[in-house]
Amino acid sequence: xxxxxxxxxxxxxxxxxxxxxxxxxxxxxxxxxxxxxxxxxxxxxxxxxxxxxxxxxxxxxxxxxxxxxxxxxxxxxxxxxxxxxxxxxxxxxxxxxxxxxxxxxxxxxxxxxxxxxxxxxxxxxxxxxxxxxxxxxxxxxxxxxxxxxxxxxxxxxxxxxxxxxxxxxxxxxxxxxxxxxxxxxxxxxxxxxxxxxxxxxxxxxxxxxxxxxxxxxxxxxxxxxxxxxxxxxxxxxxxxxxxxxxxxxxxxxxxxxxxxxxxxxxxxxxxxxxxxxxxxxxxxxxxxxxxxxxxxxxxxxxxxxxxxxxxxxxxxxxxxxxxxxxxxxxxxxxxxxxxxxxxxxxxxxxxxxxxxxx
Length: 358
Hints:
Structural class: alpha+beta
Number of strands: 13
Distance between the termini: 38 Å
């Protein structure tokens, strides 16, 4: 393999270099950032910004500078307000299709969905934000029975996908929902072909080198749509075939070589690994430890050393400090241990708390 795939990806995902100071700008550049673990998602953004803190990202979220909603694959992502409508228009039909079985199982049909939208628009109008249980109570009062648990979740997800609601400001530690029309009232729309090209462009610009299959995994689009997207932007990228796989990337980028060893403490579901169907390029050490590159292990908090996943980490945070525990897959050298300490110090600065190793 002649192409330094991990080096390119560290660079293109703003892990080895970054000039970003605003979270919305990072999210916009990446297209969307998986954030089903809100705390982990914030740390993923923090790693890609200069000098931000956990509290600053909470404030940006509460002010609506970045939104959190179901989009792309049926999971939560951070999305920039100016991108949410065209991205939903492109991806929502596929997610609705993926949800079809659960809609039927939970008796979430077209009539009840339309009724739920009317209720949500009424109770949230005027800048109101309500928690999930509060939305469930409003739906039940309007005659939509059993609006709780999984069934309520699919009513809410449907409303997110159709652009009725999105994340509102947090109320303490609770998440709320607001009307998208009020949360992001002035956002651009794109024709479908333009939206497809734009999503494809952002993916390969920030995840490349990556393959067609990587893109379909991340985007949730059909293979036909993904191929159409690549065709639309292929003049902006080059490709290289490695072991029979075609990787697309921006050849004008010269990855910044990090000092070795350099460690990154990546959160669960980080785009550095969750953004790819094939994670073998960063899983060479894991393979030696008999962990497959697509193992659920790669969904947890992982330690990356010089681009390779070399272990996992856990954190317990209270008001006074954060306790982190490292579980490397291989014995680390003294220099590598020091790199972990530097990464832990970066996490401490982000949290504005002392970080101690367990």
